[in-house]
Amino acid sequence: EALGRSEFVLDEWKRQYSNEDTRPVALPWFWQNYKPEEYSLWSVNYKYNNELKLTFMANNLIGGFHARLEASRKYLFGAQAVYGANYDCVIQGVFLVRGQDSQPAFEVGPDWESYEFRKLDHTNPEDRKLIEDQWAWDVPVVIDGKEYPFADGHVFK
């Protein structure tokens, strides 16, 4: 492994996220243990939201994307969701990525170029809120002043 051994135990984070309440327990555990020198955080949003139709079909896109990321499972954790309603929905999510570059972890999936990747700064309050909201799935997203409620999603762990 070119990145060396990590002090942050990704599998333990995945257990915390899966087994504990997200906001009161899992997220505080994450921030206490997160090592930004070892892992980076990325907003991963679908580029073609205007082409999405039914929310279940959009959610199937997420599931397919996650299935094709299997080769990178030991380097990634993320949650992506469909927000909105049929014929008016968007796909957004946040991933934790081993290292500082997202491309090596995501390019194993042939549809990775359908997503926009933006590196997040965990010290920026807006980015930190985005991370928590995307992983908790308990608040709507607002895009261009329009609110989209959570519809469905997938966790990649």
Give the oligomer, counting copies of the same chain as homo and different chains as hetero. single chain
Largest sheet features: 5 strands, antiparallel
Helix content: 25-40%
Query: If you average the pLDDT, what whole number results?
Result: 97
Instruction: Just give the CATH class.
Output: Alpha Beta
Number of helices: 5
Q: Ends: how far apart?
A: 20 Å
Give the CA-based shape. globular
- Tell me the CATH architecture: 2-Layer Sandwich
Structural features, described:
This is EF-1-gamma C-terminal domain-containing protein. The protein is of the alpha+beta class and 157 residues long. Helix content is 33%, strand content 31%. It has one domain: Alpha-Beta Plaits (2-Layer Sandwich), CATH 3.30.70.1010. Strand 2 and strand 3 form a beta hairpin.
Task: Describe the structure in brief.
The protein is 33% helix and 31% strand. It has 157 residues and is α+β, with helices and mostly antiparallel strands.
Question: Helices, strands, pairings?
Answer:
Elements: H1 10-19, H2 22-33, E1 39-46, H3 55-68, E2 76-85, E3 88-98, H4 103-106, E4 115-120, H5 125-136, E5 141-143, E6 146-148, E7 150-156
Antiparallel strand pairs: 1-3, 1-4, 2-3, 2-7, 5-6
Helix pairs in contact: 1-2
Features:
157 residues, alpha+beta, Alpha-Beta Plaits, five-stranded antiparallel β-sheet, two-stranded antiparallel ribbon, globular, protein biosynthesis, EF1B_G_C_sf
